[in-house]
Amino acid sequence: MPSKWSGAAVDPGGGKPTPGEWQSVEVPGRPAAFAGEDRVAYRTVFDDPRDPDDDLGLLELRGCYAGAEVWLNDELVAESDAVFEPLKVPFEPEAENELVVECRAPEDRFGGIHDTDRVPDERSVPGIWWGVDVTGQPDPFVVDVDLRPRATEEGATIDAAVEVYAGESLDDRLTLTTKPAGDRRGRGMMDRASVSAAAGERAVVEKSIDVRDPSLWWPRGMGRQHRYEVRAKLDEAARTSATGIATVEGTDEGGLRVNGEDVPVRGVALTDAAVADAERAVEVNANLVRAHAHALPEAMYDACDEAGLLVWQDLPLTGPGVFDIARGEEVAERLVDTYAHHPSLAAVGVHDEPTDTFAERVGSGLVDRLRFRYRVWRSDYDRGAAEEVAEAVPDGVAVYPVVGEPGTDPDAAALYPGWDYGGVDDLDWVRDRYDLDGAVGEFGAGSLPEGVDPAGADDDGGPDLAGFDRSKHDAVVGSDDPEASQAYQAELVRGVAERLRTDGAPVVVANALRDAGDAGMGVYARDGTPKEAVDSLAAAFEPVQAFLVGASAGECDVVVANDAPEAISGTVRWEASGESGEVEATVDAGARSVVGTIDVPSAASSVDLALRVGDASVENVYRL
Questions:
Q1: What is the dihedral of CA 390, 393, 397, 398, to 10 degrees?
Q2: Which residues does the UniProt record annotate as the domain Glycoside hydrolase family 2 immunoglobulin-like beta-sandwich (predicted)?
Q3: Do residues 164 and 174 touch, judged by C-beta distance below 8 A?
Q4: Each residue of 133-156: pLDDT tens digit?
Q5: Domains in the chain, number
Q6: pTM of the model
Q7: Is residue 130 domain-shared with residue 164, that is, in the same domain?
Q8: Each residue of 289-331: pLDDT tens digit?
Q9: CA-to-CA distance for 619 and 73, rounded, in angstroms?
C-alpha cells in the first residue's frame, strides 16, 4: 500500500482534482481536518509495484464513502456510488504512478447513519475508509472469486464467478479447488473451466461446484461455523475466497430460521463498526449484530463468520422523508450481492426509523399516555415505498421493510421505554396496544462514560455528543454524574431485555454496542471501555438464564429462557434475606417456561438466582 498520502477539500467541477494546496493525511482513514466537507481528494505517488516475474498491477480500493472517482496517471479508471462495493483496477504500471481519488458526501437519501447527526462529523468525512492495496500481478491473473452457496436436495452447490484479466489475448483453462477452510493437508475437490478473453479484457467464468454431504455453518450456540475455501488458479496466478453453507429465512412471527431451525436472536446494533466489535458482541452474549443504517467492512463480516454472529444488514437509509424507489431497489440488490458469500448475512432492513414521533420525551402518567397515543395517531408514514424495495432484495435472507416506532406498523419495532417515554413498566402496554409482539430492532438508553462533562459540550474542544440526547438523559437520570448515568442505563437495558426474552420476542436487539461519539447509547464507550451496562446486558442475554418477573417483595414467577438447541433440565436455587429454596426446571429448546413461583421476603434487598444444568451454572442477581 502507498505509504504517503495528502488530501484537500475540493469543489465540484469535473475532471481530475487539482487543488492549490495539499496536506498530509492517513489513508485509509477519515481525516478530522475535513469534517463537514462535501468533497475531499486524496493523492499519492507510488513506484512500480511489480516483481521481476510480474507483468501487470492491480489497484484495490475498499470503502470509498459515499461515492468516488479514481484517477490513475491522469486517466479516470473507476467510479463508485456505494461505499460497500470494492473497486479493483488492473493497470500497466509506470516507473512512478500518481493516484488521485476524489470522494464525495451522499447526494441522495442513501448516505445512511453517517449522513445524520447521530455520528460525529469527523466519522463521516468523505474518504477511503477501509483499505488500499497496490500489487504486482502476472499476465493473465485472477481479479476476483465471487461465491454464492445454496442448499440443494443432493447437498449443496457453490456457484463461483471467477473474474480474470488478460493483458494479451487468452484461451486457457483455470482450476478450481474446493476444501474445508483450515484444512491444510486435504486435497479437496477439483474442477476445471475454460476461459477466453481478448487483450485488455476482464472476463468472468462461471462454474457450479457440487458439495456432497456438506458441513453447515451455524450461529454461535447452535453448532460449528464450518466454511469452505475455493481457490481459483490460472497459470501462475491464484486467488482464494471463503464461504459457508447456511439457509436463512424469516418466520411469520418476525424471527429467523437458520438451516431449518428457529434461532432466538439476542442482538446488538452497531453505529460505526470496528472489527473488535465482533469480540465485544460475543462478550455480551449476542448472537447477532445489526449494521444500523450503514454497511459493514468486509473484515467485519469475516469476523462475524468466524465468531458465529448473524448479521442484520440495513440499507444505508434512515430517518423521515421520501426516497427514490428505483435507487433503493438497486442498492438493495447490490448490497446483498456484495455480501452474499458470507454465511453470517441473515437479514436486510430497508427503511430505519421513518418517523420522529418522540423527538421530545413523554412521561409515564395517565395524561402522558394520552399524549403518547395522540402523537402516534398523528404520525404519518406510508410503508409502500419500503415494501417495494424489500421485494427487490434477493432470496436467501430475511427482510424487515420497516424498523420504526409505534404507529409505523413496523416489521421490527423501535421501542424506547424509559428513554423516549415512561419507564420499563410501560413496555407491555405499548407492545399490546400497537400489536408489536414480533421482532424488536432496537431498544436502550444513553449514558455518559467516565470523564465526559456534557456541560462543556458546546465549548471549543468539548466532548462530541453526536448520538446522545442530553435532554432525555437529564429527564430520566437527573444528574451529570457518569456513575448515576451508567447505573440507570444498566438497569433499563437489563429490564427491557429480560421482559422481551421472557415474553418470547423472537428477535431482541439492544441499541447500541458502542458509542459513536463521546457519549451515547452504547454499552461500551467510544474507545471500547466497558460501561456498567455491559455486565447487565450480558446477564440478560445469557443463552440459558433464569429470570425473576417483576422482581419485588411478594410472590414472583421464575421464568427460564432456553436458547440452546436442545431441551434442558436443571434446578433454580434462590436466596433472599436469609431465606432460600429450589425449583425444578425443564424447558424445551428455544422455549421460555414459568418453572415456579417464589415468595420474596419483604425485608429482602436482593434476590440471587442460580440456574444449574448438569455441571454448568449461571447466576442472576436482582437488587430490590
A1: 0
A2: 142-240
A3: yes
A4: 999 999 999 999 999 999 999 999
A5: 4
A6: 0.97
A7: no
A8: 999 999 999 999 999 999 999 999 999 999 999 999 999 999 9
A9: 63
